[in-house]
What does this fold into?
Amino acid sequence: MAIFAWDTVPAPRVVMLNASVLVLNRSYLPIHVTSARRAFSLVYQGFARVVDAEHRTFAFEEWTELRVIGGHDGVGTSRGRVRLPRVIVLTVFDRMPRRHVRFSRSNVMTRDAFTCQYCGVRPPRSELNLDHVVPRAHGGRSTWENVVASCVACNRSKGGRTPEQAGLRLRRPPSRPRWTPLAALPLASARHEEWRPFLRVVDGRGGASLPGHPGSPLGHQASPLGRGTRA
It folds into this structure.
């Protein structure tokens, strides 16, 4: 990518280029979160377009011509300051978001709102652990129904015992979530306001009412992107 000399990028610009960008497929469904650096690369190569707060889309040249004004983060380039994209839409990829949530540490933390499921405290993420409600030594499995977020203090207090044995009580029974991980992102981290219209439309079964589709605020307007080849 010609406009950035990646090996000589100053530290403040590196922070900007590592900012999170929401990636949509051609149906405007959220499928991924990437870095601003990767987003710029995809737009520059024509694999994606930038989506602004008004759901207008921009090719790379069009985006670099927009002014960086108050309220917009920007990064310095050989062409001057360029706005950081918050959302991009792919032009050549139709992958659908997961309908079933993968069991993982990050998704368990998201389900539990980064809150200890025993004492209700919400500590820094570095002080949160995963806890097996029924310890593995007692036959407990690593499943949605048996793993919860736990603060360090409660985790140590519980040790290799069940909550009843340790005198602890779960705030609610753990269960498999019905949302997709991306749909819960604004609740978990509220990264950018521009993400919300695309994240809130994904319901608990993976269905959606999306910009450019029936039932969306934009009505029956077609996607601004043409049909591309599949990546």
User: Anything to note?
Assistant: The two ends are 20 Å apart (CA to CA). The helical segments are 11-17, 36-44, 60-64, 105-111, 152-158, 163-166, 185-188, 196-199.
